[in-house]
Amino acid sequence: MPITPRDIRNIALAGHPGAGKTTLFEALLLAGGVIQTAGTIERGSTLGDFDAEEIARGHSIQSALATIERPGLRVNLIDTPGYPDFRGPTLAALTAVETVAIVVNAAAGIEYGTRRLLHYARERGLARVLVINHIDAEDADLAALVDALRAEFGPECLPVNLPARGRATVLDAFSHASGDTDFDSLAGAHARILDQVVEINERMMGRYLDAGEDALSAQDLHDAFEQCLREGHLLPICFTSARSGAGVAEFIELAQRLLPNPAEANPPPYRRNSDDARIEVLPDPARHVLADVFKIQHDAFLGKIAVFRVHQGTLHRDAQLFVDDARKPFKVGHLFRLRGKDTVEISEAIPGDIAAVAKIDDIHPEAVLHDSHDEDGIALAPIALPQPMFALAIEAASKGQEQKLALALARLAEEDPCFRIEHRKELNETVIRGLGELHLRVTLERMRARFGVEVTQRAPRIAYRETVSRLAEGHFRHKKQTGGAGQFGEVFLRVEPLPRGAGFEFVDAVKGGTIPGQFIPAVEKGVRQGLGLGAIAGYPLEDLRVTVHDGKSHPVDSKEVAFISAGRKAFLDAVLKAEPLLLEPIVNLEVSVPEAHVGDLTGALAARRARILGTGSPRRGEGAISAQAPLAELDGFATELKAATAGQGRYSMELAHYEATPPAVQKKLAAAWKPHAEED
């Protein structure tokens, strides 16, 4: 029988570094008959970690895909990076799946990555499964870990299977109520999960309370289970040992029986660009094709490969597809499925499938692929990505390498949604941004290995911002006479502060045509130029409203260029009167250190202007510090942490918000700024 959308399961394996995701990915592929021998990270032979940097470092940098297929089942697995610096590919993968399997190291327990990934998956409306891996580790206290998961994430965390005595296999707790388990009782686990599942449906609960489990059909329980997953009312826990294989085949069977197919999951959040209205998308093979690109990779032979999830319709080889709102389609010459670094050619892709095409230059990350103009102007709601905070100014180490560097950077940015490139024309420099020191270091090493480009680099520059603290008026008259036709434009405007994170608003309040309507866009263009120039230290301005309310024009000499200049200079005039402030990025820090070092590191962070939000001991011998700190103060913190803890400390961070710098910092940065002189 051919595979249908109801036979497909899309699962991302995610989790904290060291949880065993790639090893579990390998074990699942072995159990599913995809590979004959499981590779190991130590030998650099896994199907998931095929990049040279991944093999050298022993951890994932990008996502990897493979498919398990058997009669009546197709499981598309995505192995994702665990390190926070490589979170971009992980989060991009969440847009392509119905289920996130969050892998937890049985010995290490709940870690920062566990919390963040559960949060991201919940925000996306995905089904979540906790996979406790390494259950045969000597120091794994499984009962205590289950208690900790329930205490932190809620009573909806319930085992759907339990390790058998000896932990060589696992026993199904959803369908069975008896068996010899390593901890807890199968009967107790079975009763708890039934209680949780029937709670979602009042009529089912009534029958269950009146007549017990026998009053419920298998389909009743399945439908209620799927509803619980959709609504976050159930967070199943299952157990595996990727090394021994315990629970691995059972996880595949669990995926087939209990995890949602495309029709059972929450629908993909497609929206119309014009009004943000939700668009109904159904996993119907007969409808128009609709697919979303979530991954780009480059191959030495195939070139640019775009990996996409089909949400609707059936895509065949030789089909004509549009990219976003393009008027001209491209032809699908070859259609692929990925298997690690390899491609497998397929003839069609149905709703739920993850497929790929090659050598289509116009495709980009988050592109919508469709076969009808009826689907123009829609997009899949993007996932909220962490803002890249670490920056390096780079340039080609050798003359004549600039074009090669630009190409390499563009390709790397296509592959990594959290790697950004910024060309600062006013400073004649190229700045790259990433999620951390490791992120940028690895990216530059990959660029050197793949493209043969060497760069010189300068210390990271902090992404400060500027804003205003009060309302103020600004004015400028641009008047220039060059012998022939002149230039004239006069602008009156006001600026006022907006709440942090509000961005920029431009308001046209001109009455009586004192500035003709055709020149208002020129005024806005000038204001936006001023936003980028900065007023006190050369950093972009944000969180303010500009209202243009008056001006003057000349019937002959008024031109667009005159109002661009007048708008820019009136804006800067107002900003300087509005008590401008310098804003610095504040990051959330999660630091893990040996418990004995918590006091020392707390003091070290306080010396860096950090606010300590809390300390704790998530597990024996380990201390945790939560803090907020200015990013500018964290230069060298990684080295200090490594030295203070003999290499045992680690930390992760992400942007929290921007706030005003201390006056001394603002004064120092303002004094160091040398604004470029402007020509009239």
Automatic annotation (TrEMBL):
The lineage of its organism: Bacteria, Pseudomonadati, Pseudomonadota, Gammaproteobacteria, Lysobacterales. Keywords: Elongation factor, GTP-binding, Nucleotide-binding, Protein biosynthesis. Pfam families: EF-G_D2, EFG_C, EFG_III, EFG_IV, GTP_EFTU. Transmembrane segments: none annotated. The gene is fusA. GO terms for molecular function: GTP binding; GTPase activity; guanosine tetraphosphate binding; translation elongation factor activity. It comes from the Bacteria. Catalyzes the GTP-dependent ribosomal translocation step during translation elongation. During this step, the ribosome changes from the pre-translocational (PRE) to the post-translocational (POST) state as the newly formed A-site-bound peptidyl-tRNA and P-site-bound deacylated tRNA move to the P and E sites, respectively. Catalyzes the coordinated movement of the two tRNA molecules, the mRNA and conformational changes in the ribosome. InterPro entries: EF-G-like_DII, EFG_II, EFG_III/V, EFG_IV, EFG_V, EFG_V-like, P-loop_NTPase, Ribosomal_Su5_D2-typ_SF. Residues 6-263 form the Tr-type G domain. One of its GO terms (biological process) is ribosome disassembly. It comes from Metallibacterium scheffleri. This is Elongation factor G.
